[in-house]
């Protein structure tokens, strides 16, 4: 019995570690408060009846009914459930995704050491943190989880394959649109690892295209007005820029805040984080790059490009790294599989990478907590200075050319949620509506804001005017 337990521990040690780390990760993320789009998405508290078209059909820019259902659930008791319920969903989904990846690595033929190393990396790499620390990212987490489960059913190749595979792909797509990409990824990845032959590949690629066409038709027949947000319009320079960001955030482990966020920039600490993680990638990827010309790795890279393609063509942020991360992990797993040198330096570099990744994760989580606290402080200040409930608010934002970094380091007025965070602080009792406008900071910005504010009050269209100046709130009644 003891030998059996030891064998289980050796075979599944990464599973035990990620399960043990999950409560710690959840405890840390529960302190992260909403900022930016968290206040405006469909997974925020929603008080409308459940049986409305917005909860089932195309709405706004997306068709994501599961997001709207989460919004309905947290709307039953916002003070208790929001954003706690969202964080629980995201962290639990990340754990399940790690378990699904472990199984995926197993069916692709990797040995127990590689499966464990790769799974642990997927769970803790800083590339996951923009997703794991976000409040509205459950769509990304569960879309990927559902897609990986779809792949596991796909390779079973039984009579239910062409029922379960399309169904799960469609389900993943209703979670987030890039879930649809696995309609093509499943056959390509299976072919790369010799699970299917070329004939089946061709047939299943046509099936995958058929799944995409059915989804497109399902959207087109719905009554709606499709609005294309300017940020989603493709362009060559945008694609090149997004591709560089994608490669950087996917394959380089570095403290993004110290490197990219100007107010917190510390190039020495950024360089230290990079150098500590570099040996692992050097031994596996750089030193062995000539061995990567293989059908497996070509197919994995193609899958990576397909998975991240929707974001590369529209908008790419650190959160979107998550969609392509399983393929980064597969590249690392392949590199481990073909490694023929002394394993001791690889083991030491792996430990260094883990320590560095955890340190970066802690820094990113703490930064996210601070951003949320800024928004909460601004909301409380606005409420206190207003003094009594106001239904109609006009918000004037004095905008600086202030750098932000994903959800980790939010601009104060975005942490404020353009005033929407005040609704949460009043338990959605007031204000009923908030109209906002932006003034670019200059020498006369404060005076201009006050002049506009007084005019709005005189018009009697608004009960109160808030002026957001960095993280300070001024009130005109």
What is the topological layout?
Elements: H1 2-11, H2 13-29, H3 65-74, H4 78-81, H5 84-107, H6 112-124, H7 129-132, H8 138-154, H9 161-175, H10 182-192, H11 198-220, H12 236-251, H13 256-260, H14 267-286, H15 295-313, H16 321-338, H17 343-386, E1 392-399, H18 412-415, H19 421-425, E2 433-440, H20 445-458, E3 464-469, E4 472-476
Parallel strand pairs: 1-2, 1-3
Antiparallel strand pairs: 3-4
Helix pairs in contact: 2-5, 2-6, 5-6, 5-8, 6-16, 8-9, 8-10, 10-11, 10-15, 12-15, 12-16, 14-17, 15-16
Would you mind describing this structure in some detail?
By secondary structure, the chain is mostly helical. The chain has helices at residues 2-11, 13-29, 65-74, 78-81, 84-107, 112-124, 129-132, 138-154, 161-175, 182-192, 198-220, 236-251, 256-260, 267-286, 295-313, 321-338, 343-386, 412-415, 421-425, 445-458, and strands at residues 392-399, 433-440, 464-469, 472-476. The N and C termini lie far apart (75 Å).
Q: Radius of gyration, Cα only, in angstroms?
A: 24 Å
Could you give the count of β-strands?
4
Average pLDDT, all residues: 91
- Proportion in β-strands: 5-15%
The number of helical runs is 20
Quick synopsis:
With 477 residues, the protein is mainly α. The protein is 61% helix and 6% strand. A 4-stranded mixed beta sheet has the order 2-1-3-4, with helices on both faces.
Features:
61% helix; globular; mainly alpha; 477 residues
